[in-house]
Amino acid sequence: MTVQWLLQGNHPHLSSIREIEQILRDQGNDVAVVALKGNSTDIPLPETLDLSRPTVCYGPSFVPRALEYPRLSPGIFFDPATFRWSAFRDGWGDRMLSADALVANLPEAMARIASECAFVRPDEDSKAFDGGPYDRKTLTAALDPAISKGRINDRTQIIIARPIQVDAEWRTFIVGGEVVAASSYRYNGIGNMNLHVPHRAIDLAFEAAELWVPADVFCLDIALSGERYGIVEANCFNAARFYGADAGVILESVASFVDRKYTAANDARLTTL
């Protein structure tokens, strides 16, 4: 196996990272573990890491550093231009659960939100503020800390959607256009990893992957509202929780995909020499 893995040792869910490390080693992968400081953009690369080989990172603190370390290839499956809600809607259209949502800058968003509640979230994949139901008063309170810290400003794009009752949610894992695993993660607003994953949710994930993908490897969250299944959002694989999905299948699928892609690219390069 040409692929090597770099794991975040100070992952917030330490038991999960230890389980993933063991699975990867059992599958024959080379694995290195590093601690990432929250206020730094640095990745302390271990001496054992061979930068001539493809590397896959796993851990949420890798994602903000994605563009700083192009040497880690493919490293982190993330592009801020494609991991935006507006990009998801451009790619998946009416398959989105809230396809009729509005995209507005911060002043426009505040002007549109009256006393009634609306679902509001950042357009970009950030934690500038938590997405959720807000009226103008509660949104102002939620945004004030982000504004004072400079995380958002008048140019920040905001998504405004009508509130929708969500009955259940599932996370699917897509690798090279194929749905390789899935898990439930919420039922009636409460975490639940034991629900059956319906065929319609899997079918929708395949349909989405055929239309457009934000990255070679990503997670796609799908929800049921009444009788309608819709896409909630895509998430970066490198930072995503697996919930009840088979971690072994996911990790092996990612490693195999990267290995095939790296080998094909290397063969093509040798052919042109």
Give structural attributes.
four-stranded parallel beta sheet, alpha+beta, five-stranded antiparallel beta sheet, D-amino Acid Aminotransferase, Chain A, domain 1, 3 domains
Describe this structure in words.
It comes from Rhizobium alvei. Pfam families: R2K_3 (PF14243). InterPro entries: R2K_3. This is ATP-grasp domain-containing protein. The chain is α+β, with helices and mostly antiparallel strands. It has three domains: 4-76 and 248-265, no CATH class; 100-161, no CATH class; 165-244, ATP-grasp fold, B domain (D-amino Acid Aminotransferase, Chain A, domain 1, 2-Layer Sandwich), CATH 3.30.470. The chain contains six helices and 13 strands. The strands form three sheets. The chain has a five-stranded antiparallel β-sheet with strand order 11-10-9-12-13. A four-stranded parallel β-sheet has the order 2-1-3-4, with helices on one face. Strands 5-8-6-7 form a four-stranded antiparallel β-sheet. The two termini are 24 Å apart. The mean pLDDT is 91.
